[in-house]
Amino acid sequence: MANSSLNGEVQSSNLPNFLLSVRLKYVKLGYHYLISNAIYLLIVPILAAVGLHLSTLTVEDLMVHLAMLKSYSTLVVFLATVYFMSRPRNVYLVDFACYKPHERYMITKERLVEKLTDIFDEDSLNFQKKILYKSGLSDKTYIPVDKWIPSNFSLSSNQHQAKLVIIGAIDDLLAKTRVKIREIGFIIVNSSMFNPTPSLSAMVVNHYKLGVNVITYNLGGMGCSAGLISVDLANRLLQGQANSYALIVSTEIVSSAFYTGNDKSKLIPNMIFRMGASAVLLSNRFSNRWGSKYQLMHVIRTHKGADDRAFSCVYQDEEEDGKKGMSLSKDLMAVAGEALKANITTLGPLVLPMSEQLLFFASLIARNVFKRKIKPYIPDFKMAFEHFCIHAGGRAVLDELQKNLDLSEALMEPSRMTLYRFGNTSSSSVWYNLAYSEAKGRIKKGDRAWQIGFGSGFKCNSAVWRALKTVNPAKEKNAWTDEIEDFPVQVPC
User: Fold this and answer.
1) What is the pTM of this model?
2) Residue 303 annotated to the active site
3) Of the residues 3, 284, 313, 387, which is catalytic?
4) Do the Cβ atoms of 128 and 116 come closer than 8 Å?
5) Is 391 an active-site residue?
6) What is the pLDDT of residues 280-309, one digit of tens each?
7) Tens of pLDDT along 468-483?
8) In whole angstroms, what separates CA 203 from the centre of its chain?
9) Exposed e or buried b per residue across 18-37, where buried means at least 16 C-beta atoms within 10 angstroms of its C-beta
10) Nearest 5 degrees, angle CA 34-CA 40-CA 41?
11) Main-chain phi, psi angles of 352, to 5 degrees
């Protein structure tokens, strides 16, 4: 979450074991998605049977049955037309880029503590130091060092940071894809805490002097899962307009969320968030099928905002002295577990192999319908995905997710190394994860990648991608390329 990042330093409770209890309504929702086009699957064998019968007839028989043959042909054409017109357009991820700040913005933990010494009282400073040194972040993360004092956290300095990371990410993407930005029909920018007027998406239009027909969207206040919400929005827009490109930019302006008070529940994000941004280019053009890296398979969005506890577990408020900050409730971890449980229970029927679905469904029926006291079957999501891109919000929550999903250190490596090298870059972190796997040469044609993000409100969103080609790291240039041989590293405890 851009607001709290689910950093896991809230130590009041651990993430619940969400795989041990599921609600049947979320399973039903997943199966609804699965069979929504099942009518077409049922029609195919019927048409095949009719065709097989016609193939046994002689010419004389065909003449007798000419009217029936015309009707059959008309039916085939009609059904084929309906099928292809109602089928959703394929959406391809042409390429993406993750912004890597200049070395002058790099800061060590020791230097950061020095800059905070004159801002906080001793108790608050010691609390932040404890969080920082257990965060899993390295001494090579980035903040706007030259501006990192509260007196410089002005609107103009935040706008400068926003332009630096957003335009930097877009320029890197355009250089990789060689797509002219004027060809892009939709531009979506998401930043949770910093939303100036004119908007950040308008800033992009102004910087590149785009035409009057470009359609822009600006998403704010939606937390670290907003990048995946942007993917869903782009997918919906591309379904309605053929031969189009959509550009997604995800970021957070760290100084805009910096808290200078002494409420410990609001101090954690100060130590976790870092500079970063991603730019993603999606297309529904058939011609992009062969040049793109991935195809979008599923986006599942789960929103628990109707629950007051979930709604208020990450909440921005203002203190009596005017200082704004993001409060983290003691219920945060439990709420996150519930949201993730609902999300993966809906996703399961869409991605798990049939063997896993049958075992899981049989266990569910036995427990919920026949009230049998048996151990629930925990689906193995490693059979559905080769790559896991979990939002690098914090060390503790990554530990809990690894335990609950039964993931190996190798599968957790992209998330842990992203947190270590770049810190919590909010909604862009899932793209730094995927870039890590590309730089390591691990993306093979046909591989499936699962991106998971959390957001205030409270939301859990996930996206599933299928690799359309093997990514050759020797031909790649991304935020990891120059130093990928140095990873993975052992993160100090």
Assistant:
1) 0.86
2) yes
3) 387
4) yes
5) yes
6) 999 999 999 999 999 999 999 999 999 999
7) 999 999 999 999 999 9
8) 24
9) bbeebeeebbebbbeeeeee
10) 70
11) -75, 145
